[in-house]
Amino acid sequence: MPSNFWLPLDRWMRALHLYTGLFLVPWMAVYATSGLFFNHTSWFARWLSYSHESLEVVRKLQLPAGAIPAGTPAQQARAVLEKLDLDGPHQILGDPNAKELSIYRMSVTGDYRISWRRDQSLAVVRRYRPYSLWRSINSLHFTHGYDARYPLPALWAITVDLVVVSIWFWIVSGIYIWARRPLRRFWGGVCLAGGGLLFALLVALLCR
User: Fold this and answer.
1) 3-class SS at 13?
2) Contacts of 138 (CB under 8 A, 6+ apart)
3) How many CA atoms lie within 13 A of 104 on its CB side?
4) What average pLDDT does this structure show over 106-128?
5) 10 Å Cβ neighbour count for 92?
6) pLDDT above 60 (res 3)
7) Nearest to 157 by CA among 19, 27, 34, 38
């Protein structure tokens, strides 16, 4: 094919490779930093560990009898969070019983554990303390999933999908750009083949 056939595609590949990378710099920094935390847990355990000792009672709210209407545990959990002005992504811990409903409310600055004591009409809010930047970055790594009830976390989920698509694009466009550079094909091929062989070897050994 004539060289002018590839020229527009070359420009688009390079431009998209460059600008998507620049746009996603903050997200990639979060995932790269949290990846370091995961790989060297002992270095950061002091700042990242969640232990029962770090749970502090930050609030207690006594509600009038019947303030939380009867319903499913999911409905009651949402109602409790709304009363506490903590409505957001959450999950129910364990099996709810007649006396208590336990709720885990995710937050980048420190997750909450909320106990709704039905028999006392009392909500007890505990939070993981102290706050640390390391813990926040770690939490951002695990923030995921779409929930139509909460637009902000859903927007974050969209950016996570954008990161995933972009990484695959960088793989394809990187190989394309390398293939279009005849003077660099040898060393690029060595890197591509070497990385592929090392990956295959490690996977084979890890699967034994």
Assistant:
1) helix
2) 34, 37, 48
3) 7
4) 90
5) 15
6) no
7) 27
Q: Per-residue pLDDT averaged across 44-53, rounded? A: 62
Residue 24 has pLDDT above 80, yes or no: yes
The DSSP secondary-structure symbol of 68 reads S
Q: What DSSP character marks residue 62? A: E
Q: Distance (Å, rounded) from C-alpha 153 to C-alpha 157?
A: 6
State the average pLDDT over residues 74-89. 92
Q: Which of 76, 120, 125 is nearest to 96 (CA)?
A: 76
- Contact between 64 and 122 under an 8 Å Cβ cutoff? The reply is no
- pLDDT over 80 (residue 97): no
Return the SS3 of 113.
strand
pLDDT in tens, 160-172: 999 999 999 999 9
- Domain ranges, ordered by start, for the chain: 3-39+144-206, 49-131
Report the alpha-carbon distance of residue 121 to residue 125 in Å, rounded: 13
Return all residues near 194 (Cβ < 8 A) that are at least 6 apart: none
* 3-class DSSP state of 161: helix
Q: Which pTM was predicted?
A: 0.75
